[in-house]
Amino acid sequence: MDHAAFSWSDGGFQAPPLSTALVYELHIGTFTPEGTFDAAIERLGHLVQLGVTHVELMPVNEFPGARGWGYDGVDLFAPHHAYGGPDALKRLVNACHARGLAVVLDVVYNHLGPSGNYLSRFAPYFTNRYGTPWGPALNFDGPHSNEVRRFFCDNALMWLRDYHFDGLRLDAVHAIFDTSAVPFLEQLGAEVRELAAQLGRPLMLIPESDLNDPRLLWPVERGSFALDAQWSDDFHHALHAVLTGERSGYYEDFGALADLAKAMRNAYVYDGRHSLHRQRRHGRPPTGLSGHRFLAYAQNHDQIGNRARGERLSQLVSTNRLKIAAALVLTSPFVPLLFQGEEWGARTPFLFFSDHSEPALAQATREGRQREFAAFGWKPDEIPDPQAADTFARSKLDWSELSRQPHRELLDWHRRLIQLRRAEPWLTDGRLDRVQTRFDEAARWLVVERGPISVACNFAAHRQEAPLRSGNHESLLTSEKTPELTAAGVVLPPESVAILKWSEETRRP
């Protein structure tokens, strides 16, 4: 297509740095009732008012049928027809830039979908030397892999250059197998940096990895890939397990307040520590890296959609606990990420859905979901049919919830937390060496200190006191009534959080 034919109006736009970012992940098909790029434009004002800086789109390349998550894409250069096609996608990016919003696109370079996947007929795009949970691995390091790498690098450059995206989220890079002296991810990072220099605007690459490997972020001089930031699942798992009490599947590695405290200080809970779930040591310390190199979240598409019933956190815990979760994410030293509707405690699920036309593939998708959930103890009859149109329809956001409680209250809480994060420099400095934590595992309280800011959390169902450092404290934001300050700490209502600011003056109880 002729990309020059589109009339862009974003020539003066520059994406804000990640250090100042609030990322908002959304799925085009379920973000609005219409499920299109153009319909999403009508909701951008809500994101601006919330305080979002970066909109992250789940994959929008062509995939089978009219509905899906987008991770089974096959035509990687074509925006999905049901969302509106190429020009509609450009209108959305242009509209985001007009409102000061950067746009990040989720791309999948670890596998392709099973339906309509014809690349193997043209060249050795796949290899049998490795395997992935989703099908054949891509050939990034075998014979004729130069051209395979060129195909995927060109795809990345196209989204950034021709559609004006400001960055890419790289799905599950732990499933990209490459033993080359110059691995594909290093080549991709170098080419994106070259494009940024040519275009005169910053571009970012944010990988998702299950390896807890900081080498993704180390500079090239250390023999690494110099990518910009990565998703931090350990933070999510530690927070989720404390909030919900769940211990099945990978949550068996989490649940202690000590894990959550470590995640707040270190990003990785497993940084060379033995993992019960994996039955081996896992991870490597992220020593020397800023918190700005990690995205932290209480929810995202995976952690909701990969549940049997697609429950959001709002369907698993109380409103008070949702407020604690939001406070820890939005006062963390990391780059906070929210998933669509999280800011108002949306009650609609986000289920896994697909639209395969081949009966055998549709049935294989159903059976695969059932096997996947067996580790979590879910029964097959609890799992909605991913092929059913109703599964998709139920996953659409209900924007009418914004006019009702407790949704209005939760939206106000998120807005105030975001405003506080912007107002207090200590909350955006990214300095992990300045994060201090104290907790009582039995009493179920946690205090996180970032400079003079203290975030005191009471996870217990009863009123109790959490200790604070000696001095004077001013209450900045509380989920319940104004907290009671004592000579030794702060008295917190059940399931509540208080954010306070300390000064060295002697406390007056």
Outline the structure in words.
- The radius of gyration is 23 Å and the shape is globular.
- The chain has an eight-stranded parallel sheet with strand order 9-8-5-2-1-14-13-10. The chain has a five-stranded antiparallel sheet with strand order 15-16-17-22-19. It has a three-stranded antiparallel sheet with strand order 18-21-20, with no helix packed on it.
- Helix content is 28%, strand content 19%.
- It has 13 helices and 22 strands.
- The model has no long low-confidence stretch (mean pLDDT 94).
- By secondary structure, the protein is α/β, with parallel strands linked by helices.
Task: List descriptors.
509 residues; globular; five-stranded antiparallel β-sheet; 13 helices; Immunoglobulin-like; eight-stranded parallel β-sheet; alpha/beta; single chain; TIM Barrel; 2 domains
Question: What's the structural blueprint in terms of helices and strands?
Answer:
Layout: E1 23-26, H1 28-31, H2 37-41, H3 44-50, E2 54-57, E3 61-62, E4 75-79, H4 85-98, E5 102-107, E6 126-132, E7 135-138, H5 145-162, E8 167-170, H6 184-199, E9 204-207, E10 230-231, H7 233-244, H8 257-266, E11 273-275, E12 280-282, E13 294-296, H9 301-305, H10 319-330, E14 335-339, H11 359-373, H12 389-394, H13 407-423, E15 435-440, E16 445-450, E17 453-458, E18 464-467, E19 472-478, E20 484-485, E21 489-492, E22 496-503
Parallel strand pairs: 1-2, 1-14, 2-5, 5-8, 8-9, 10-13, 13-14
Antiparallel strand pairs: 3-4, 6-7, 11-12, 15-16, 16-17, 17-22, 18-21, 19-22, 20-21
